[in-house]
Structure formats: structure tokens, C-alpha cells
């Protein structure tokens, strides 16, 4: 009788015996919090009624979570940028603080350790929020979608946020390893005569090598996950970081195990096929590719990232309630902030077979080249 009283027959598929059929939510209820008709207290002891209460705010609840996740992600991007800049500008002062000679060994060990942990707090915040909030939320949404079995109400989502928190972590790791490499190279220039400093330098080299090899493998697993979720921009960002770690290992004369040629080819294809999202990393990719091909490493990886690549992080906090949208690949995004999905955007791949055009026959070669330079085109 209560099912009829509250109109739950329009919410669940209920058989003649009053049992809810497997995964049968036909529509979201909109009749307010269910209360007992006798005492007028909210019904909290019966699963079907408590679930109906929670389903009423389902869409708003999901959007609130995405909004919170986006705000926290923007905060971490801001913290990362500030700390990366701090590390870069304090390197000279750090080197001046190192003490030569056998009496400076313990002091040097302490300051090197402290500097190596500069990014640790941001890494821990990113992984903790991912593990405590993002991953359980994404897992529960998937379970709820399995229960509801009604894509008009709730569909399975290919959320990018777990991997975007991983991106912050790997950005921190790349900066930390690069800074450690600079410290190691500076210690070698000192030509230490004391055994303690020599041990510090060798220990630092071993740690850089071990951790870099580990990050190459970890990034490979995350790249596979991004491909499974059709997260094209995330995949490019992960691959670029992986190239950065490869550069660090190469400076140590260590084989990274990365198929560099295949990685460069994959990035180029993604940038070509998804110009609105992955394509914004074109200039960054060219800078990284140049360093890889030349066997060099930049003084600062952040300098290789253009403004377009840095402005995405702060945008995640600008979501306005009521504007949550899902693209064809089920990526959630804020339609008030982004014109299209920031992960896959518009797929505008060039045709594989294009007619061959002889530029010398249609226009003056010099004018042709000047025209493309004016457009900022890059020859690849």
C-alpha cells in the first residue's frame, strides 16, 4: 500500500508480489522526501524507500561531487606551479649552501634530502584525494549505474579525474627527478675529495635511476588506462612526461626501455587527429621532441609548456551547477566552461589519402612558405 501511496510504481518495476525487479529504476522520483503517513518521520529503515529518497537528488549530488573534484584539482595545479617555480629559482642559493670538505657531509645530506621532498606534500595530497574521494566516487557511480540499468537516468561514465590527479603526481615526480639530476651534476662539478660527499652523489644517482625506471613503467600503465577511456589529451600529457623521464635516464647513460620512436609517432597522431584538445600540446611536443632528438635536457621542463597547455588546470574550478554535460565518449565536463569536451573535443582527423598537390604549380613557392609562416604552421 505504501508503494501506491508514495507512487513508487512509477519509480521501480514492481512485480505482483511487491518485489522490485532486478535493476529496475524506471524514472527518478520527484515527490519529496518519503515520510511515514502516521508519524510523518522520514522513512529510513526500508531500503526501497531510503533509496527513493536518495535517487531524488541523484543528478545534483553527482554534479556537486564533480564540482568539488574539479576545484581540488585546480588547487593542486596552482600549488604545483608555485612549488615548481620555487625550486627553479632557489637552486643557485641551494648550491651556495652546500659545504665543501669532509666536515660538510652530514649538512649536505640533510639539505639535499629536504630539497628532494619539496614536492612530496603535493604528491601526497593528489594521491590521497584520488584514493579517498575520486576513486570511490567513480567506483560507486559505476555500481549504481549497474543497479539502475537505465541509461536515461544514469549511464556508465568514462571519468578523466582519476587520471588527471595521477597527472599532477607525475608532474611533481618529473620536476623532482630533474632537480635531483641537477643536484647530482653539481656535486660532480665540485670534485669532492671527501668520501662522504662522494657517497651522497653516488647514492643520489642510484635513486634517480631506480625511481625514473619505475616512473617509466607506471606511466606506461596509466597511458594504457587513458587509451581505454578515450582520454586523448590525458594520454598525450602522460606520454610527454614519460619522454621527460626518458631524457633524465639518458643523461645518466641508462636505457629507459621506452620505445621513443613509437611514442613520438603516437603523440603526433593524437595531436593531428584531435586538434582542439591534444592539439593544444603541439608546440610543447615539438620542444620535447627536439630535446629528445638532440640528446639535450632543458634547464626547466615548465618552460617547454605553452600558455595553452597550462590554462586547463585552473578552468576545472569554474564549473557552474546545472551545466554538467557528457560527450559521446561519456566524459563529464562543464558546458559553461568548455565549448566541447576538453579530453576528446571534435574529432577532425585529416583524410589518410590526400590528393598530391604540387605547390610550384599553384602559387609562387616563396609566397607559399610565407603564407604558412604567417599562420604559425609547423613543419613536421
Condensed summary:
Helix content is 60%, strand content 4%. It contains 15 helices and 4 strands.
Report on the structure:
With about 375 residues, the chain is mainly alpha-helical. About 60% of the residues lie in helices and about 5% in strands. The chain has 15 helices and 4 strands. It has helices spanning about 1-5, 45-55, 60-90, 90-95, 105-115, 120-150, 160-190, 195-230, 230-250, 260-275, 280-295, 305-310, 310-315, 360, 365-375; strands at about 10-15, 20-25, 325, 330-335. Strands 1-2 form a two-stranded antiparallel sheet. A two-stranded antiparallel ribbon has the order 3-4. Helix 6 (about 120-150) packs antiparallel against helix 7 (about 160-190), helix 9 (about 230-250) runs antiparallel to helix 10 and helix 9 packs parallel to helix 11 (about 280-295). The chain is elongated, with a radius of gyration of 27 Å. The protein starts with a helix and ends in a 6-residue tail after the last helix.
Helix and strand layout, with pairings?
Blueprint: H1 2-6, E1 12-14, E2 20-25, H2 47-56, H3 58-89, H4 91-97, H5 105-116, H6 120-148, H7 161-189, H8 195-228, H9 232-251, H10 260-273, H11 282-294, H12 307-310, H13 312-315, E3 324-326, E4 332-334, H14 359-362, H15 365-374
Antiparallel strand pairs: 1-2, 3-4
Helix pairs in contact: 3-6, 3-7, 6-7, 7-8, 7-9, 8-9, 9-10, 9-11
How many individual β-strands?
4
Classify the beta-strand content into a percent band.
under 5%
Strand arrangement, largest sheet?
1-2
What structural class do helix, strand and pairing data support? mainly alpha
Instruction: Write down the Rg.
Output: 27 Å
DSSP helix count? Answer: 15
Percent range for helical residues? 55-70%
Quaternary structure type: single chain
The average pLDDT is 82
Amino acid at each position: 500500500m505504501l508503494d501506491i501511496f508514495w507512487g513508487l510504481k512509477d519509480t521501480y518495476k514492481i512485480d505482483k508480489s511487491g518485489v522490485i525487479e532486478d535493476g529496475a529504476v524506471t524514472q527518478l522520483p520527484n515527490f519529496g522526501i518519503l515520510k511515514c503517513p502516521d508519524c510523518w518521520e522520514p522513512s529510513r529503515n526500508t531500503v526501497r524507500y531510503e533509496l527513493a529518497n536518495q535517487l531524488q537528488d541523484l543528478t545534483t549530488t553527482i554534479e556537486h561531487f564533480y564540482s568539488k573534484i574539479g576545484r581540488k584539482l585546480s588547487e593542486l595545479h596552482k600549488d604545483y606551479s608555485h612549488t615548481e617555480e620555487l625550486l627553479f629559482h632557489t637552486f643557485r642559493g641551494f648550491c651556495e649552501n652546500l659545504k665543501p670538505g669532509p666536515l660538510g657531509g652530514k649538512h649536505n645530506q640533510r639539505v639535499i634530502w629536504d630539497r628532494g621532498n619539496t614536492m612530496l606534500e603535493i604528491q601526497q595530497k593528489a594521491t590521497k584525494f584520488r584514493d579517498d574521494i575520486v576513486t570511490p566516487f567513480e567506483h560507486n557511480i559505476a555500481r549504481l549505474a549497474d543497479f539502475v540499468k537505465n541509461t536515461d537516468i544514469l549511464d556508465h561514465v568514462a571519468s578523466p579525474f582519476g587520471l588527471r590527479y595521477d597527472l599532477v603526481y607525475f608532474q611533481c615526480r618529473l620536476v623532482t627527478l630533474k632537480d635531483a639530476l641537477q643536484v647530482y651534476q653539481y656535486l660532480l662539478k665540485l670534485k669532492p675529495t671527501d668520501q662522504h660527499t662522494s657517497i651522497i652523489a653516488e647514492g643520489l644517482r642510484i635513486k634517480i635511476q631506480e625511481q625514473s625506471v619505475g616512473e617509466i613503467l607506471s606511466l606506461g600503465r596509466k597511458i594504457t588506462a587513458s587509451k581505454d577511456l578515450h582520454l586523448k589529451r590525458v594520454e598525450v600529457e602522460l606520454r610527454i612526461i614519460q619522454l621527460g623521464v626518458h631524457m633524465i635516464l639518458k643523461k645518466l647513460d641508462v636505457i629507459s626501455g621506452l620505445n621513443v620512436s613509437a611514442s613520438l609517432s603516437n603523440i603526433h597522431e593524437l595531436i593531428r587527429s584531435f586538434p582542439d584538445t591534444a592539439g593544444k600540446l603541439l608546440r610543447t611536443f615539438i620542444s620535447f621532441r627536439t630535446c629528445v632528438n638532440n640528446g639535450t635536457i632543458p634547464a626547466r621542463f615548465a618552460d617547454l609548456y605553452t600558455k595553452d597547455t597550462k590554462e586547463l588546470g585552473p578552468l576545472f574550478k569554474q564549473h557552474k551547477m546545472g551545466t554538467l554535460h557528457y560527450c559521446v565518449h561519456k566524459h563529464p565536463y562543464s558546458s559553461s566552461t568548455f565549448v566541447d569536451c576538453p579530453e576528446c573535443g571534435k574529432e577532425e582527423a585529416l583524410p589518410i589519402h590526400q590528393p598530391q598537390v604540387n605547390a610550384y604549380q599553384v602559387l609562387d613557392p616563396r609566397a607559399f612558405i610565407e603564407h604558412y609562416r604567417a599562420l604559425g604552421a609547423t613543419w613536421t
